[in-house]
């Protein structure tokens, strides 16, 4: 009886023996068998094998509302058009042959399946073309796409051709704009039309779209069209678009697409009155209904609203908190509108109640810390963080500070930002644990790398906002550190002072001294390493002066580095400094006013008190006169007769200068030069005189201002002699 194996072999058929072949030919035959598999089993491979002409690659870009872009971005329109350049597929298909090792019947079946797949694909393609042609405005849409493809690359289109294309484009879309704006490819056509439109054409587009802006704002692609209209349009277009959002703010701010365009409108183009109407809707549905049809001016300040209707305080605060909490939970924390609303809640919450405590928990509840990070970089948001610092407990403050510390380079970015820098100043003022403050802020602010610290200090010393972070602990709230442009910082800090009396225990002066002591080594080392770069700029010179007066520790190396910057002839121009990019050619420290003030102040040894009209010396004394004199000794006459003659006068008047007699003797030997400088018109006086003469000539009136002639410092030195 035959075995099961034998039976199985008989059913399958006996394999015929073949002639022996070389190993290479066997591998080749196996390869052919692999390549000859059915196209019906892999339609994607069949498509790839079809012979077609190469299609030219079209540049793509994302949706953007940037004004200077050569195109409006997005998916290339060629991705949605039929490729007309594809040749007919080759009649000679890779049909499996009997020689490939397949049975003749099997080869025939594979060939039939391949033909069926090809016919099905062609039929699908034909149906797609028919559906596309049956759509409304199919021909017009196809033509506008061609125009867009040409216009999107501005530099490649001659001016005359571009003008003709724009004219044709407007002929097609005028009266049909609503049919174009809700499709991702055709909306770019309208954006291009806005880009090249004249004011009247832009107004035409805006009026034709009136009544649809809320719907457009909710569209993933059409929202950028609103941005282009607002940025490139005028007040009339703005007043057409913005009111369409009124009454829908609470819903739109929650929408994933509309929320961004609503916030852009609020932050960038809305008028003060429009902002107030938008913000009021956060206070409850009552304010949505109440505003409809109202023309008189309204306020978005919640304190004024509550003063008029105190009985509505509870529902208003509840409505405001619910909407704020909803956006925070949805991680939609980057909106300026949200930050303004949060500030309104904080300013009207009752101190010492659950309102403040619960609100702080909401702010801290964002585990990733995105809320606090976003808040810091807006005007209202930074004020919210400052109030959170002021009202919070020691644990709250530590958690807030940790959020900023744990993100790389974030504290450096905050220091240079117009809004965020005041958050760091508030941290100085309210956190009692100065060790925590210094370890959390200073290494992150100035970099942990010693080589990078010097560059950072030089950069920050010349930055309007970052310099306040470095000098605040030495200068306090002086007018020199806080010019009128930073007056809002002083207002926030005054607000924090009022709150911290109940939440902070340490004496403010003790806190300031402890932080200044921790910061001093960083700054003294930077001055020692880069004194020449710092003194080349007005802000840098002021920075050096204040640090030398207020820092604690060994200052000898830094003072010596400063003194060496005065070496050489003060009348010779030096090479450009590399401290700041695009720096103008630097001059010797002796020829700049701020350089002279720096040396004069350090020689005097302290700040000038306007009340007592005297110098208040620092302790311990700097003794800078003896340090700087060897560096200016060889050019003492040039200093005495130059624009900074007061530096030499300070040497002579210094009480602890050991070489005073030597200086006076040198001056006496060159008395004639001093007399000449004291009597002749200086270069600066000449410029001012010529300006007065020009004004008098233009106006016909002579200047009544009498200018003093001669070097005043040289005159005073003559009196000393």
Automatic annotation (TrEMBL):
UniProt-listed PROSITE patterns: PUM_HD (PS50303)
One Pfam family linked to the record: CPL
Domain (PUM-HD) ranges: 105-472
GO molecular function: mRNA binding
GO cellular component, one term: nucleolus
Record key words, sorted: Repeat, RNA-binding
Functional description taken from the UniProt entry: RNA-binding nucleolar protein required for pre-rRNA processing. Involved in production of 18S rRNA and assembly of small ribosomal subunit.
PANTHER family: PUMILIO HOMOLOG 3
Record-linked SMART domains: Pumilio (SM00025)
Residue ranges, compositional bias (Basic and acidic residues): 33-48, 95-108, 118-133, 683-700
Name of protein: Probable PUF6 Member of the PUF protein family
Acidic residues biased stretches: 61-73, 81-94
GO biological process: regulation of translation
Location of the region described as Disordered in the Swiss-Prot/TrEMBL record: 1-137, 675-700
């Amino acid at each position: 009886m035959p075995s099961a194996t034998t039976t199985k072999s008989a059913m399958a058929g006996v394999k015929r023996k073949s002639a022996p072949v070389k190993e290479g030919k066997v591998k080749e035959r196996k390869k052919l068998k692999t390549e000859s598999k059915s196209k019906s089993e892999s339609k994607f491979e069949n498509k790839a094998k079809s012979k077609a002409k190469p299609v030219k690659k079209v540049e793509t870009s994302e949706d953007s509302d940037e004004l200077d872009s050569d195109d409006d971005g997005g998916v290339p329109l060629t991705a949605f058009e039929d490729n007309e350049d594809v040749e007919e597929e080759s009649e000679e298909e890779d049909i499996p042959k009997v020689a490939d090792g397949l049975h003749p019947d099997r080869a025939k079946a594979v060939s039939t399946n391949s033909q069926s797949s090809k016919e099905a694909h062609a039929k699908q393609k034909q149906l797609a073309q028919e559906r596309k042609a049956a759509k409304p405005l199919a021909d017009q849409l196809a033509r506008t796409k061609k125009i867009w493809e040409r216009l999107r690359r501005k530099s490649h289109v001659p001016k005359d051709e571009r003008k003709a294309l724009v004219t044709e484009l407007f002929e097609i879309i005028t009266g049909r704009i609503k049919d174009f704006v809700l499709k991702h490819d055709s909306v770019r056509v309208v954006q291009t039309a806005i880009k090249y439109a004249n004011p009247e054409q832009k107004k035409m587009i805006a009026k034709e779209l009136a009544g649809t802006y809320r719907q457009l704002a909710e569209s993933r692609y059409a929202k950028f069209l609103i941005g282009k209209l607002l940025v490139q349009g005028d007040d009339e277009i703005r007043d057409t678009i913005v009111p369409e959002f009124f009454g829908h703010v609470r819903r739109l701010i929650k929408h994933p697409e509309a929320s961004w365009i609503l916030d852009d409108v609020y932050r960038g183009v809305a008028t003060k009155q429009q902002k107030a109407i938008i913000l009021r809707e956060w206070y409850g549905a009552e304010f949505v209904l109440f505003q409809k049809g109202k023309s008189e001016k309204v306020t978005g300040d919640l304190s004024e609203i509550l003063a008029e209707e105190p009985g509505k305080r509870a529902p208003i605060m509840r409505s405001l908190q619910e909407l704020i909490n909803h956006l925070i939970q949805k991680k939609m924390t980057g909106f300026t509108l949200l930050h303004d609303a949060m500030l309104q809640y904080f300013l009207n919450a009752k101190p010492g109640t659950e309102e403040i405590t619960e609100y702080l928990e909401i702010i801290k509840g964002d585990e990733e810390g995105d809320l606090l990070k976003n808040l810091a970089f807006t005007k209202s948001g930074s004020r919210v963080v400052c109030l959170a610092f002021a009202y919070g407990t020691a644990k709250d403050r530590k958690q807030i500070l940790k959020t900023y510390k744990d993100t790389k380079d974030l504290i450096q970015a905050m220091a240079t930002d117009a809004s965020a820098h005041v958050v760091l100043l508030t941290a100085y003022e309210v956190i009692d644990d100065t060790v925590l403050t210094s370890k959390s802020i200073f290494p992150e602010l100035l970099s942990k790398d010693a080589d990078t610290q010097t560059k950072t200090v030089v950069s920050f010393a010349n930055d309007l906002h970052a310099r306040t972070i470095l000098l605040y602990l030495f200068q306090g709230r002086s007018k020199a550190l806080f010019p009128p442009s930073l007056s809002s910082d002083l207002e926030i800090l005054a607000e924090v002072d009022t709150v911290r009396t109940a939440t902070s225990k340490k004496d403010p002066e003790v806190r300031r001294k402890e932080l200044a002591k921790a910061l001093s080594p960083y700054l003294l080392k930077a001055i020692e390493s880069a004194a020449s770069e710092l003194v080349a700029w007005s802000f840098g010179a002021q920075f050096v002066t204040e640090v030398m007066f207020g820092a604690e520790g060994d200052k000898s190396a830094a003072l010596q580095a400063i003194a060496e910057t005065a070496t050489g002839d003060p009348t010779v121009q030096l090479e450009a400094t590399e401290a700041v990019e695009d720096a103008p050619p630097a001059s010797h420290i002796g020829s700049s006013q701020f350089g002279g003030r720096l040396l004069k102040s350090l020689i005097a040894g302290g700040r000038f008190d306007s009340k007592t009209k005297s110098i208040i010396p620092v302790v311990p004394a700097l003794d800078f006169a003896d340090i700087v004199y060897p560096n200016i000794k060889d050019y003492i006459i040039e200093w005495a007769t130059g624009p900074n003659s007061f530096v030499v006068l300070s040497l002579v008047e210094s009480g602890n200068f050991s070489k005073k007699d030597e200086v006076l003797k040198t001056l006496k030997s060159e008395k004639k030069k001093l007399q000449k400088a004291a009597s002749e018109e200086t270069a600066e006086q000449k410029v001012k005189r010529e300006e007065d003469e020009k004004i008098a000539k233009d106006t016909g009136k002579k200047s009544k201002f009498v200018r003093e002639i001669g070097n005043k410092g040289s005159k005073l030195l003559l009196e000393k002699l």
